[in-house]
Specification:
Elements lengths: L6 H14 L7 E4 L3 H17 L4 E4 L2 H9 L7 H4 L2 E6 L3 E2 L5 E2 L6 H9 L1 E9 L12 E5 L4 H14 L6 E4 L1 E2 L2 E2 L7 E6 L6 H8 L5 E4 L1 E2 L5 E5 L5 E3 L1
Parallel strand pairs: 1-2, 1-3, 3-6, 6-14
Antiparallel strand pairs: 4-5, 5-13, 7-11, 7-12, 8-11, 9-10, 14-15
The structure holds ribulose-5-phosphate (5RP).
The site of ribulose-5-phosphate has 18 residues, from helix 2 and helix 5.
Family: Belongs to the ribose 5-phosphate isomerase family.
EC number: 5.3.1.6
Catalytic activity: aldehydo-D-ribose 5-phosphate = D-ribulose 5-phosphate
């Protein structure tokens, strides 16, 4: 383990290291986005360097691509490889059914496409992301910039019609401008508190014109690895 890590980074590193242990020679891998996924890319680079592991990665964001390239992890595109053996990614929340909220790092669209095109998805996390019910973390929804205020109003109307508890919807900003995703879209954050029926909400949100994708990952994740600062990795 790298020296001088704070407890949160230790936990993330432990989870990442354990997940990278699942990688086998010749695998095609989806590489997630975020601070935990960045540890996974570093651990993967170490195995490539030290064991001569031959893998190819499909990154889920420009950030992950840049990190992978800087560490010598070979990359490809989803269109080139078409299907992946394994995706390893972080999450913002996971529930007892291993359903997730993702998109805190604004990469949910590529993350969902890549994870769905994988035989297996492993989520790596620290214990703080475990919840009984999804929704305390604001649910990211990627929308196209054209008419985004109308899309936002339609999302709000939908939340009212579904009797969702929290209905505050905000446009994600970076400084005084809307945050723009790798796919040139905007992100709406839905402050819902609790999501009673994540499966239904995921389906309904994606039917709204202007919505590209939402951050609910339902029945996509197979395994969650929870890292702890004391060195334990708990597998769910
Ligand atoms: C990016 C994501 C990330 O996986 C999620 O935000 C977790 O990030 P971190 O590992 O930094 O806590 O969904 O879109």
């Amino acid at each position: 383990m790298p020296a001088d890590l704070n407890p949160i980074d230790k936990a993330k590193f432990i989870a990442a290291k354990r997940a990278v242990g699942f990688v086998q020679d010749g695998m095609k891998l989806g590489l997630g986005t975020g601070s935990t996924a960045a540890w996974m890319v570093r651990c993967l680079a170490e195995r490539i360097r030290e064991e001569g592991l031959r893998v190819v990665g499909v990154p889920t964001s420009t950030r992950t691509a840049e990190l992978a390239v800087s560490l010598g992890v070979p990359l490809s595109t989803l269109d080139e490889v078409k299907w992946l053996d394994l995706t390893i990614d972080g999450a913002d929340e996971f529930d007892p059914s291993l359903n997730l909220i993702k998109g805190g790092g604004a990469a949910l669209l590529q993350e969902k496409i890549v994870a769905t095109a994988s035989d297996q998805m492993i989520v790596i996390t620290d214990a703080a992301k475990e919840v009984v019910q999804l929704g305390a973390f604001p649910l990211p929804v990627e929308v196209i910039p054209f008419g985004w205020q109308t899309t936002k109003a339609l999302v709000e109307e939908t939340l009212v019609s579904m009797d969702v508890l929290g209905r505050d919807v905000t446009l994600r900003m970076t400084g005084d401008r809307p945050l723009v995703t790798d796919e040139s879209n905007y992100i709406l954050d839905l402050h819902l508190n609790r999501i009673g029926n994540p499966r239904q909400l995921a389906l309904v949100l994606n039917q709204i014109p202007g919505v590209v994708e939402n951050g609910l990952f339902i029945d996509i994740c197979d395994i969650v690895i929870i890292g702890h600062a004391d060195g334990r990795a708990v597998v769910r």
